[in-house]
Every structure is written in structure tokens, then in C-alpha cells.
Amino acid sequence: xxxxxxxxxxxxxxxxxxxxxxxxxxxxxxxxxxxxxxxxxxxxxxxxxxxxxxxxxxxxxxxxxxxxxxxxxxxxxxxxxxxxxxxxxxxxxxxxxxxxxxxxxxxxxxxxxxxxxxxxxxxxxxxxxxxxxxxxxxxxxxxxxxxxxxxxxxxxxxxxxxxxxxxxxxxxxxxxxxxxxxxxxxxxxxxxxxxxxxxxxxxxxxxxxxx
Length: 211
Hints:
By secondary structure, the chain is of the alpha/beta class. It has a single domain (4-89, 127-206), classed as Rossmann fold (3-Layer(aba) Sandwich). It has helices at residues 14-17, 31-46, 60-72, 99-106, 108-116, 128-148, 159-169, 174-178; strands at residues 4-9, 53-56, 79-82, 153-157, 187-192, 198-203. It has a 6-stranded mixed beta sheet. β2, α3 (60-72) and β3 form a beta-alpha-beta unit. The longest helix is centred in the middle third of the chain and has 21 residues, at 128-148. The protein is globular and about 50 Å long. It starts with a strand and ends in an 8-residue tail after the last strand. The model is unreliable at 207-211 (pLDDT under 50).
């Protein structure tokens, strides 16, 4: 029994390209983002992986990435569950702003604190800890039980919702998780033990150097 869990951040979105704070806003993937998602599916298929169920967020960029990965693997019919618990961190008043504009408005130091602290949220938004507070219970009640039953599970979501999961899986401290950046469209392949700890982890085909 494999107990396979694959995490994939969505491919590049239009707002990633423009360096805008995205959060719960809903831009589409760029052409590069589509290609990144397709590459993820190709890598997974080449490595011999398959899936019984997929989880994604309520946002289009993650849903499209999930669908493209499954399409490349010939798995279009796989059950796909959408839930806002897996949404990106809500950036509140920063959403839609260019990162340079945000620095001009609030100051570089303050914006850096909002982006890189663990538990200080931007105005009207969520910290990474807040994001984890909705991701972790959903993982424990909906995703993990299926992995432990031996189902092969794909989670296509967002940089911060997945960082909060990786924090738990990899047992990272608050300081360590703040240094972790997840490349777009790059699958992280976990095999879990029966007690839900990580037996092995590998990152497939890292294309982050390409953009």
C-alpha cells in the first residue's frame, strides 16, 4: 500500500506574472502556467504515478492546474473535490496591488513583515498561521484518511496553503517555513507511513530556474 500524497502548486497565474498580491482573487493561468501544469502531469506519468482522487481549492488557477495534470496523465475521470479550505492565503487589503505599490503605500518594512511573518496578517487578511488553521483540519478530516486507506491522492492548491501543509509534513519550525518558497507547477511526492508521518519525499522536475 503506497499511501501516496502529491502536492502541486498551481502553474504561473496572470497576477504572478504582474507581481500582484493575489490571495482569493481569481485570475487565470498564463500560457507558461498551462505548460507548467502539463509538465507536472507528464513528469508524474513518466514516473509511473496514478491517482484515485484529487483535491483542489475554489480558485480557477488551482482547478485548471489540477485538471491539466490529470488530463496529461489520462485520468480525466478521477474524482475531484473542491473546497475553499485549500484556497490561497487571503491578502486582504493587499489583494490586487502591485508589490511595489504596496511598499510605496505602507513602507517596505511593513509589507515585508506581512509577507514574511508567521502570525501577523495584512489588514483584512490572513497570516500563514491563519491559513494553516483552515488547511490543517481539512487535511486531517478529508485528505489524510484517504491517503491512509491506500488511495493515491493529488492536492493541487496554492503557495501558502501548501506551505502550511508542508510545515506539518516536514516538521518545520515557524522560522524554517518562512524561508520555504514553492515553485509553480512542481509536484512534491510524499509517501506516508501508517502513522501519517513521512516515509519519503521527492520533488519532481523543478523548473523554477526557467523563470
